[in-house]
Amino acid sequence: MHTMATAHTATPAAAIIARGPQTARPVPAADIAAPTAGSVRSYTKDEEIFSEGDRAAYLYKVVSGVVRTSKLLSDGRRQIDAFHLAGDIFGIETGDEYRFSAEAVGDAVVIAYRRCSLETLAATDTQFAQQFVRGMMRSLERAQEHMLLLGRKTALEKIATFLIDLAERASGDDGAVDLPMSRADIADHLGLTIETVSRSLTQLERDAVIKLPSTRHIVLSDKAALRRLNA
């Protein structure tokens, strides 16, 4: 079971913009709401942001780093619902409790917004309201795509889809990707075993579709082949 995070560090928004993200694409200053609208929080690797069943008092926006949301199934297996990168919104709930747990994959900075303040923020800040709606739509779209991926795609197709999506989201360039997450995280996200993830990556490398200069850095050598698998 996950343990509850005991501490986080608040950081001035100006310092975040100056420092920039560590594992994800930069976020335009316009995408970071005024500090008075939410509290800026920093988390370290594997630190819990909230736990399944906690009161859903906040929703969050990633400023830098990567956050994973996951659920423990009744048989003890973990299903990672999504990886949230810079600019993504997570923790959106219709009920009073979080249905998933959220943890920082590595060092991460987020902005926490109180749910009870959302109506006021949306009414007084048009830009925030537009960003929030766009974030919700992106989250819904990715959830639908992930449902299709889990139910209908082979292991190779899942890996191809994951690599293309992550490369485009993380850097805006689909030529290469630095994986912030572990093979175990990828396996729990795609509904595969760690061994199947490793075998699939090795097969793609053998077929000259990708290159693996290191465990975490992947070059997408044949993007057309990956897209055919992703089709």
From TrEMBL:
Example GO CC term: the record gives: cytosol
Answer yes or no on keyword DNA-binding.
yes
Alphabetical keyword list: DNA-binding, Transcription, Transcription regulation
Give the matching SMART domains: cNMP, HTH_CRP
Offer an example of a GO molecular function term for this protein.
DNA binding
Q: Which residues form the HTH crp-type domain?
A: 153-223
Q: Which organism is it from?
A: Microvirga subterranea
Bilayer-spanning residue ranges: none
Lineage of source species: Bacteria, Pseudomonadati, Pseudomonadota, Alphaproteobacteria, Hyphomicrobiales
Q: Tell me what this protein is called.
A: CRP/FNR family nitrogen fixation transcriptional regulator
In terms of superkingdom, the source organism counts as: Bacteria
Q: Which residues form the Cyclic nucleotide-binding domain?
A: 41-91
**PANTHER family of this UniProt entry?**
CRP FAMILY TRANSCRIPTIONAL REGULATORY PROTEIN, FUMARATE AND NITRATE REDUCTION REGULATORY PROTEIN
